[in-house]
Amino acid sequence: MVTPVIRTVDLRSDTVTKPTESMRSAMANAEVDDDVLGNDPTAVILEREVAEIAGKEAAMFVPSGTMGNLISVLVHCDERGSEVILGDDSHIHIYENGGVSSLGGVHPRTVKNEEDGTMEISSIEAAVRSPKGDLHYPVTKLICLENTQANCGGRCLPIEYIDKVGELAKKHGLKLHIDGARLFNASVALGVPVTRIVQAADSVSICLSKGIGAPVGSVIVGSKSFITKARWLRKTLGGGMRQIGVLCAAALVALRENVAKLEDDHKKAKILAEGLNRIERLKVDVAAVETNIIYVDLPKDPKFGAEDACKSLEVLGVLVIPQTTFRIRIVLHHQISDSDLDYVLSCFEKLFSSVPEEKA
Ligand SMILES: Cc1ncc(COP(=O)(O)O)c(C=O)c1O
Ligand SMILES: C[C@@H](O)[C@H](N)C(=O)O
């Protein structure tokens, strides 16, 4: 008999949040206009606000972080035979369908992501290929970082590190892009303003639809000339949108109301990580939980791996996703309550406190 679901706690990602009442009201009342034929007035307000938050000249709303990264890479890598240096566990390389290559013809040159989300600076420099180099080689145009680094567990890149990569980029005449899908999480966790974190970057893609809970969208920031080129590319990719003020209004509410909630997401993540780590058969690197992402390592039981555990947790109403064969990813967000945490812990205890019955 299937245990009745007592409640549903959705920890699959911070992309699962539902628009708040204040967002829905703002959406309903948004001032709008055609953003292809002119400028949607609410989009203009949002773009100005995010450009100021990031300390960059200009900004542009895009429907997804994937499109934000793609446009940014393609603006910087505007010549055939261009190469981008990025982490081997970066979202651009792993989860964006190889768009930089398949759509942009840009060659990815991966460098190992360390556990803390960085790439060794010496390895980045060794990967740079110069236009004066060997006839066999593509030409490096861009370095991409990711802050926080999602696949390393939401780790924050230190400011000093980003500045050093920026210096390296300048030394070799390269540009620096930051995939800032969870940049607000990094800013809150580091206690450093967004402007300072991205100071060395030529462009940044900032998700509004993740931790701060907008229903849709990201914003890319950079110089005025970067955004002018980006706007053309967005249209080329079919991203020219009409009355986007409906979406931008919700994003403005997210910016103004939800950045302040991120610290609590991080606190909840730490509490849940500590609780899970107390369950004997589970292992969590609690010290590595810097923001809202937790990795839970399961016993290496081929009869009950991450996929099986996620299915069993789903029956209890806890929604999480497998990260690897024996690892589960949990992502906290502002619509998770303290009592949800207690319930999630009880479900993991129910599942893992006893050694599973030999499966028939
Ligand atoms: C680090 C990172 N970058 C980019 C993206 C892409 O954002 P979107 O899902 O809006 O395309 C995501 C996840 O969604 C992400 O986790
Ligand atoms: C899976 C990935 O694309 C998404 N950005 C997430 O973290 O949920």
Index terms:
360 residues, alpha/beta, Aspartate Aminotransferase, domain 1, Aspartate Aminotransferase, domain 2, seven-stranded mixed sheet, three-stranded antiparallel sheet, binds pyridoxal-5'-phosphate, binds threonine, coiled coil, EC 4.1.2.48, lyase, ArAA_b-elim_lyase/Thr_aldolase, PyrdxlP-dep_Trfase
3D structure, described in words:
InterPro entries: ArAA_b-elim_lyase/Thr_aldolase, Low_specificity_L-TA-like, PyrdxlP-dep_Trfase, PyrdxlP-dep_Trfase_major, PyrdxlP-dep_Trfase_small. The chain is globular, with a radius of gyration of 21 Å. β5, α7 and β6 (175-180) form a beta-alpha-beta unit. The chain starts with 8 loop residues before the first strand and ends in an 8-residue tail after the last helix. It has helices spanning 21-28, 41-54, 65-76, 91-94, 99-102, 121-127, 159-171, 183-190, 194-197, 224-236, 245-257, 262-277, 306-315, 338-352; strands spanning 9-10, 58-62, 82-87, 107-111, 139-146, 175-180, 203-207, 218-222, 293-297, 318-319, 321-324, 327-331. It folds into two domains: 9-16 and 261-352, Aspartate Aminotransferase, domain 1 (Alpha-Beta Complex); 31-257, Aspartate Aminotransferase, domain 2 (3-Layer(aba) Sandwich), CATH 3.40.640. It is 39% helix and 16% strand. The protein binds pyridoxal-5'-phosphate (PLP) and threonine.
